[in-house]
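Whiteboard transcription, Tuesday session. T.W. wrote the structure tokens on the left side:
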């Protein structure tokens, strides 16, 4: 490193790993807290709300749980592996884990939208309705003669 810059980056070198580790652990803990709070709210809501509200909350809870677990597995876990590779100082492992983590993080938003469309029943019914192709029978006149007309249904 050029003269003078080694002094500037000493603080960054010493603080990066602890701060990054704390950040990753805090994200994982907060995702677990979201699941716990949502379950507690669902229990309280089931005693007070109508059956339709409870059913809708169950759909949303399932969606949130799936999204949180997906986020935990596909974004936080690769970052933990990247953090571990940084601690070990293995350059090849760092390159692989950073590449995999970056690729997985780029897909999270699309997959979370698909999870929401799948788990929330009104959304799922709407999308399935868009994808359904109704087949209409076609009547074909096989032959026409003056005496008889035959029709064939395909």
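and on the right, the sequence the group agreed on:
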């Amino acid at each position: 490193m050029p003269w003078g810059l080694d002094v500037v980056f000493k603080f960054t070198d010493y603080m990066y790993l602890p701060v990054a580790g704390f950040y990753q652990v805090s994200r994982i803990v907060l995702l677990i807290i979201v699941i716990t709070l949502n379950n507690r709210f669902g229990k309280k809501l089931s005693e007070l709300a109508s059956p339709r509200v409870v059913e809708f909350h169950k759909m949303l809870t399932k969606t949130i749980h799936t999204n949180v677990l997906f986020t935990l597995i596909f974004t936080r876990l690769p970052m933990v592996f990247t953090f571990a590779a940084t601690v070990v100082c293995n350059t090849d492992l760092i390159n692989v884990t950073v590449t995999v983590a970056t690729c997985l993080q780029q897909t999270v938003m699309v997959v979370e939208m698909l999870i929401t469309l799948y788990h929330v029943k009104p959304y799922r019914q709407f999308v399935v309705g868009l994808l359904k192709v109704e087949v209409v029978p076609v009547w074909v006149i096989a032959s026409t003669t003056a005496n008889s007309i035959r029709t064939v249904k395909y």
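Someone added at the bottom: The first helix runs from residue 5 to 8.
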